[in-house]
Amino acid sequence: MHYTVGEMAKKLGVAPSALRYYEKEGLLPFVERSEGGIRVFRDSDYEWLKIISCLKKTGMQIKDIRSFIHLCMLGDETIDERLALFQKRKAEVEKQMAELQETLDTVNFKCWYYETAKAAGTTEVPNNMPDEDLPPDMREIRKRLKSEQ
Amino acid sequence: MHYTVGEMAKKLGVAPSALRYYEKEGLLPFVERSEGGIRVFRDSDYEWLKIISCLKKTGMQIKDIRSFIHLCMLGDETIDERLALFQKRKAEVEKQMAELQETLDTVNFKCWYYETAKAAGTTEVPNNMPDEDLPPDMREIRKRLKSEQ
DNA sequence: CTACAACTTAAAGTTAACTTTAAGTCAAGA
DNA sequence: TCTTGACTTAAAGTTAACTTTAAGTTGTAG
Question: What pTM was estimated for this model as a whole?
């Protein structure tokens, strides 16, 4: 099966201009052309693009993804380096997850805060609530918001 | 306790220019000035800034955070609206967590892939491995990378 | 064979969230 | 009082990752 840039973009849920941009940036050295110069994407290119998309979601920049693609093009010599790269990405994403969980904790605290304010008709109530009256899981979070040290 | 822009920036781990930018964008209507025109940050402003930072981490834009701050300034009339805002942020962050988990699954698959390739000396081995030979938790992920539908 | 949608390129434009610069002012220690 | 580091502002600059535009080409359906 092969696809034009528009078809592949649709399959991936991105704009055709994004795929052309990726190619210009050297991310798609494996994409071939028809005799007339039209890009020809294959199913294997879809897999490449899913990996590129994954690396982007881990927070990697285009220029670093290009380096990774170059490593891939060099073949089995670079397996160790590519393994190390993904292990680093794993640590990075796990860190992002932890940070996002902390953000979620804060948001949950604020939901509790406004639910309590709503029930009372005023934010004075959650504002002035002593530590022993708030739900146990909210105590640490409020402390963090107030001092962070 | 009060702080200059530089001191507060340090406490928050951001650049002073970022705090000046936030003020210019209307995020800090509560920050006062000395007689000479120097910004005076208080401990309560630190709490505001932690909430602003939290909202930023949920993916909210400056202009939308400004709207939230305005709601706060209007007082208890807007409690419901603010609760709804945080509930929406909660759903948003939970969605981000799910997406990040999917990204992590893919990264973990690639770690397995390169560990297997490393042991074999070639990517041919994980490439050609039949479904029944790969770890059970990798099967779905490889399928997703190959087709997504 | 023609029309036309979708392709091609290079170059310029967009956007958000800051950062930098330049020229000047404030305020605390010596 | 003087020096000096940190403050002030407005305006211009930065960066990444695209998107848009303009002018032209390809390829398929009728």
Answer: 0.93
